[in-house]
Amino acid sequence: MSKSKPVFSSSIGKKLIMSLTGIFLCLFLVVHLVGNLQLFKDDAGLAFNKYAYFMTHFTPIKVVSYLLYASVIVHVIYAITLSMKNKAARPIGYAKYDGQANSKWNSRNMGILGTVILVFLATHMSNFWWKFHNDEVPYIEYRTDLATGQTTARELQASEFHDYQETVENNVQILKARDLYKQVDFAFKNVALVALYLVAMAALAFHLIHGFQSAFQTLGFNHRRYIGIIRAIGVWVFGVLIPIGFAMMPLFFFFK
């Protein structure tokens, strides 16, 4: 590598950035899944709608969100750049090459898996993030009796809602919020959307099984003492538990 060439513009530098952004995105998946588990609560969406407001209005979380968007963009751009560079460096395939014998299926098809995930992300953002931020979701009011803990809910008309508001009147806690929970419920009645989510979660599983371990290897964490732990986390946490957790959400609302 030339001394005058910036490190991060080299192939090694790009792989390093892809590894760092990939690990950051993996951490986000964990946090996002934990938050989205509020969807399974039997409270008419109260906990989830509070979570949605917190995630979009708490300043430190908003800063992390911008880093997340940047990480996705950089990760995708560098993945495409490296893929094109590798293909250009070897325009003619080797005379003898058995892909199945030399590498695993997911490692050979990271581009396809990534494309499926990218389509999913665009669909996911348009259905939920965009509508939540542009007042295209219903509104709801929760009334919780602080003496009994009982909560009732009713849909609000647009004229009744001005902004997220939480007050207490006569020992009753009143919360007015955008009802993203109802939007989730509505969206996942669409069988095509549910199917896309399931396919995307399968793609995510295969992508993470290879990508998680590969990221740590790029960063130099490939010693035999801990490579087994990294591989196990990549397979069982990011390749199994997290994709299944996300896949359960559309199935839960579709069959509910």
TrEMBL record:
Signal among keywords: no
Top-level lineage group: Bacteria
Residue ranges crossing the lipid bilayer per the database entry: 63-82, 110-130, 191-212, 233-255
Keywords: Membrane, Transmembrane, Transmembrane helix
InterPro entries in the record: Cytochrome_b-558, SQR/QFR_C/D
Statement: the UniProt record of this protein carries the keyword Thylakoid: no
CDD domains in the record: SQR_TypeB_2_TM
A GO cellular component entry from the record: membrane
Gene3D superfamilies attached to this UniProt entry: Fumarate reductase/succinate dehydrogenase, transmembrane subunit
Protein name (Swiss-Prot/TrEMBL): Succinate dehydrogenase / fumarate reductase cytochrome b subunit
